[in-house]
Amino acid sequence: MTRREIFEGSDTEEVWVEGQSNDSESKVLLTISNHNGERTVLITPQEIVESKSKLFVQAPPERIVTPQQLRQKKMQTIVRNTGYVLSAVLLTFSALSVTGFVKARIVLTGSMEPTIKAGDVVILANPQNVEPKVGDIVAYTARRFSGESVGTFTHRIIGGDYDNGFTVQGDNNPNPDVQKPGRNDISGVVFLIIPFIGRLLTPKAMIILIPCIVGLWLVIDTLRNEN
């Protein structure tokens, strides 16, 4: 009587099949699961082929989860929870932005280093809700002598007041700014600094970032389908 070993070269899965089927089209699917993982073979009268059980049957809930599957599930959980947190933060910020409580801007220069670096995002509170004071970092509209706006600077208040105008200076600048911004010039008081993320919001960075995000999503989707 013919005897064939199912899992050749294995010390833990010692299984044999004996005899010969009368039906040349007969097939047997055998799956063994243990702490080492899962092994599946398709047995026919002609050969024994290693395969995967999920290609033939739906795995029962009580099947043993392999270490690789545990890692995949943990990664999926981390990615999913991170997505939830980011979504909640973005929705909250959007709501606060619409109501005028906060604003955000990307810092483009190193005038406030090391406190704020180029590419950092600063979150600003409305000056009507948080009154600026000496020591605060504020965003204000810089103007020419003619009153024409030339841009927005984010610098620290080192003196002055609302009535006479604030004296402001970048932490990395040798001298105070020429302009003394007043009540109508200050657009916000910095209360939160988010490092680096502003660099990812430039057009060049987005061209690289978007394909990377799509690629990561495809990898995660593939891992999920492997379970």
Helices and strands in order, then pairings?
Blueprint: E1 3-5, E2 16-18, E3 28-34, E4 37-43, E5 48-51, H1 67-99, E6 102-106, E7 121-125, E8 137-143, E9 149-161, E10 165-169, E11 186-194, H2 203-226
Antiparallel strand pairs: 1-2, 3-4, 4-5, 6-7, 7-11, 8-9, 8-11, 9-10
Radius of gyration, whole Å: 32 Å
CATH superfamily of the largest domain: Umud Fragment, subunit A
**Global mean pLDDT:** 78
How many separate domains?
A: 3
The CATH class label of the largest domain is Mainly Beta
Total DSSP helices: 2
- Name the helicity range: 25-40%
Distance between termini? 39 Å
CATH architecture of the largest domain: Ribbon
Describe this structure in words.
The protein is α+β, with helices and mostly antiparallel strands. The chain folds into three domains: 3-55, no CATH class; 67-98 and 200-226, no CATH class; 101-195, Umud Fragment, subunit A, CATH 2.10.109. The protein has helices spanning 67-99, 203-226; strands at 3-5, 16-18, 28-34, 37-43, 48-51, 102-106, 121-125, 137-143, 149-161, 165-169, 186-194. A six-stranded antiparallel sheet has the order 6-7-11-8-9-10. It has a three-stranded antiparallel sheet with strand order 3-4-5, with no helix packed on it. Strand 9 (149-161) and strand 10 form a beta hairpin.
